Amino acid sequence: MSISANIASGYETLIAEHVTDHVALVTMNRPATANALNSAMGLELIDYFEATAMQANDVRCIILTGAGKAFCAGGDFKERSGMSDAAWRDQHLIFERMARAILACPVSVIAAVNGAAFGGGCEIAACCDFIYASSTARFALTETSLGIIPGAGGTQTIARAVGERRAKELILGAEPFGAVDAASWGLVNRVVAPEELREAAIGQAKRIAANAPLAIRQAKQAISRGLQMSLGDGLAFEIEAYHRLIPTADRREGVLAFNARRSPHFEGR
C-alpha cells in the first residue's frame, strides 16, 4: 500500500474526511464486524498516520472513531482462525507498527469512543493523545482470557494512564468496564451523551487546531518524551523544544495578535 497524505484517498476499512478547517475525522468502517481489527485495517491505519507524520498538509488535529455502534471490538478472530504461528506473528507485526504510527503521530489525535472498545480497540484508543467517550461506551482488555496479552501497547499505555495496580487488575482480570469508571481512573478525559460525542470531539479538535501547529507538536513531544525521562532530563528536553519555536513566524504572529487584541492566524511555519 502506497503512502499518501491525501485524506480523500479511498480506503477499504477507513473513512477519512475533513469535517472543518484543519480537522480530520477518521472512522474505522467495518460496522458489520463491530469494526474488528483485521490486517487491512491495520495497514490502512499505518498508511494514514505515517503519511500524516511524513508529509506536511493542513490537518492539525485528528479524531479517530468507529462506524455504527462500536469503536473497535478488537482483533478479527474470524480472520485469524486457522492461522499458523508464523502467520499470526506476521499479522501482529502490522498491529505493532500501527500502534507505533498512532503514538508517534506529531498531529494531535483524539479518540471518540462511541461504543465497545475491546482488546485491540481499547489499545488503539489508548494510543491516542486523549479519549472522549460516549456514556454507553464499554472498554475491556480481554487478551488474557484468550491465551495472549495486550500486544498493541496496552500493557504500557494503559498502565501509564491508570497506574500499575489498576492496569494489573484490568489486564489480568480481563473484565469489561464502563466509561464513567474509565474516566475516574484517568483513561478517559470526558464522558458525554452518545448524541453529543461527535460534536464534543470536533469542538475540542477545533480548539486545538486554532492554536499554533508547531507549538502543538513541540508540546506534545515534550510531554510524551519527557514522561520517559527523569525530571531534570525532561526539563532540559522541554527547553530544547521551546527554543525551536522562538524563530518561527507563528511565534511572532502570536505576540502581534495578542497585542493587537485579535485572533492569531497561524500558518505552521
If you had to describe this structure to a student in words, what would you say it looks like?
The chain has 269 residues and is of the alpha/beta class. It folds into two domains: 196 residues, 2-enoyl-CoA Hydratase, Chain A, domain 1 (Alpha-Beta Complex), CATH 3.90.226; 48 residues, Lyase 2-enoyl-coa Hydratase, Chain  A, domain 2 (Orthogonal Bundle). The chain contains eleven helices and ten strands. The chain has a six-stranded mixed β-sheet, with helices on both faces. A four-stranded mixed β-sheet has the order 4-6-8-9. Helix 5 crosses helix 6. The longest helix has 20 residues. The protein is globular. The two termini are 30 Å apart. The N terminus is likely disordered.
Give the structural class.
alpha/beta
**Strand percentage:** 15-25%
The CATH H-level superfamily of the largest domain is: 2-enoyl-CoA Hydratase, Chain A, domain 1
Dominant shape: globular
Query: What CATH architecture of the largest domain do you see?
Result: Alpha-Beta Complex
* Strand arrangement, major sheet: 1-2-3-5-7-10
Please give the domain count: 2
The fold-level CATH name of the largest domain is: 2-enoyl-CoA Hydratase, Chain A, domain 1
Mean pLDDT: 92
Portion of residues within helices: 40-55%
Could you name the CATH class of the largest domain? Alpha Beta
> How many DSSP H or I helices?
11
Q: What is the first-to-last residue Cα distance? A: 30 Å
Number of E-type strands: 10
Low-confidence stretches: 1-8
* Major sheet summary line: 6 strands, mixed
Would you list the SSEs in sequence order as H and E?
EEHEEHHEEHEEHHEHEHHHH
Cα-based radius of gyration, to the nearest Å: 19 Å
